[in-house]
Design brief:
It is built from five helices and two strands, in the order H-H-H-H-E-E-H. By secondary structure, it is of the alpha+beta class.
Length: 123
């Protein structure tokens, strides 16, 4: 396994004001990445198939009632996990609740193996 969830603070752009840079230093990204990875992992085990961002949010905020993560965090954490090779775009055949097309994402093999190790102690 080449990647792990290791950085602990959120990223800020070089063009962001100093207040945003300071705020990013207080956000625990690991927790958010774990919540998102866990949602994808258990969705995979339940055969939900690839998830749109809206479906991911529904799993996190409705099904699992996670109020310890901000509403815009799952999208950002999903993107970071995608950069690490844990999550990949499958297609753009998803639909939002308003009928718009949406990308669908799923765990990569590396993401599934890491999540199985992390959440179930399996490799």
């Amino acid at each position: 396994m080449t990647h792990t969830i290791s950085h602990t603070t959120a990223r800020a752009r070089t063009t962001d004001p100093q207040t945003s840079v300071d705020a990013a230093q207080t956000v625990n990204v690991n927790k958010g990445q774990h919540i998102v990875l866990e949602a994808y992992y258990y969705a995979h085990l339940a055969d939900y198939g690839p998830l749109t961002e809206e479906a991911l949010n529904n799993i996190i905020f409705i099904k699992h009632d996670r109020s310890d993560i901000k509403a815009d965090s799952p999208r950002k954490r999903r993107s970071e996990l995608e950069d690490k090779g844990f999550i990949e775009v499958v297609d753009a055949k998803g639909l939002t609740s308003t009928g718009r097309r949406a990308r669908r994402y799923q765990l990569t093999k590396e993401g599934f193996d890491y999540a199985a190790w992390l959440f179930d102690g399996e490799a």
